[in-house]
């Protein structure tokens, strides 16, 4: 079995006629190799709807983790309920931080996301994901190369030094138009915030409509110079 310690990435190719641009093949490979030791960390953005649809075809009882910061939009929580109805066998776990918002404020000051967004992301996202991945060998992410300059070199399979794991990224070759074409074709549920200028959706307190108006991440931590929460660094 391919592990973090015995990293030797296999080559995964796909036919140009493949609607999923290799995503389905990559997911089959991941679950064949790791089985229940694969965790899908889903943000429930539109890319996540595609991955949930594909994972349901490969391993309908797969474990899906949502990093519940207690700061998400109500539309995101409502979407999770719709996804649970659409894919009832998926094991969706809402992973909570160790600190409640009140405890975080008492320890680090009110509205930490304003004074120190990196620290807030560490407490409410990175540490919870570390806990979720502690017993696994690989995790799945919806990263696409088109999303930002920091993601242009992402591969299907990546040696994740941050979490000492194998990071599987099935959607690296997908464009924004292809994402939406697939969602409409298969009538998948999605967050209605996407329809009003939010291509990338995170915590409500740190997310604004995109300045670019397409698939960019300019609405995340707007005005701070921050573009990633730290999960993919």
Automatic annotation (TrEMBL):
Disordered: region residues: 210-233
Pathway annotation: Sulfur metabolism; hydrogen sulfide biosynthesis; sulfite from sulfate
Positions that bind [4Fe-4S] cluster: 120-121, 203, 206
Keyword Oxidoreductase: yes
Stored SUPFAM superfamilies: Adenine nucleotide alpha hydrolases-like
Cofactor(s) demanded: [4Fe-4S] cluster
EC number: 1.8.4.10
Cofactor binding note from Swiss-Prot or TrEMBL: Binds 1 [4Fe-4S] cluster per subunit.
Predominant subcellular localization, coarse grouping: cytoplasm
Source organism superkingdom: Bacteria
Family: Belongs to the PAPS reductase family. CysH subfamily.
Stated name of the protein: Adenosine 5'-phosphosulfate reductase
Annotated gene: cysH
């Amino acid at each position: 079995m391919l592990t973090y310690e015995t990293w030797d990435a296999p080559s995964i190719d796909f036919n140009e006629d493949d609607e999923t641009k290799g995503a389905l093949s990559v997911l089959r490979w991941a679950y064949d190799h790791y089985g229940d030791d694969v965790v899908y960390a889903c943000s429930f953005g539109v890319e996540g709807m595609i991955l949930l649809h594909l994972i349901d075809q490969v391993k309908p009882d797969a474990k899906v983790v949502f990093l519940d910061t207690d700061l998400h939009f109500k539309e995101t929580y409502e979407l999770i309920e719709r996804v649970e109805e659409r894919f009832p066998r998926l094991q969706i776990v809402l992973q909570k931080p160790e600190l409640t918002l009140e405890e975080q404020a008492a320890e680090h000051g009110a509205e930490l996301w304003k004074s120190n967004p990196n620290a807030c992301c560490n407490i409410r996202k990175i540490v919870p994901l570390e806990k979720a991945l502690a017993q696994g060998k690989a995790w799945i992410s919806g990263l696409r190369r088109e999303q930002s300059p920091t993601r242009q070199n992402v591969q299907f399979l990546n040696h994740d030094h941050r979490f000492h794991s194998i990071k599987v990224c099935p959607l690296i070759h997908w464009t924004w138009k292809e994402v939406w074409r697939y969602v409409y074709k298969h009538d998948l549920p999605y967050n209605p915030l996407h329809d009003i200028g939010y291509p990338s959706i995170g915590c409500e307190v740190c997310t604004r409509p995109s300045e670019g108006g397409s698939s960019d991440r300019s609405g995340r931590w707007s005005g701070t110079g921050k573009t990633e929460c730290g999960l993919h660094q």
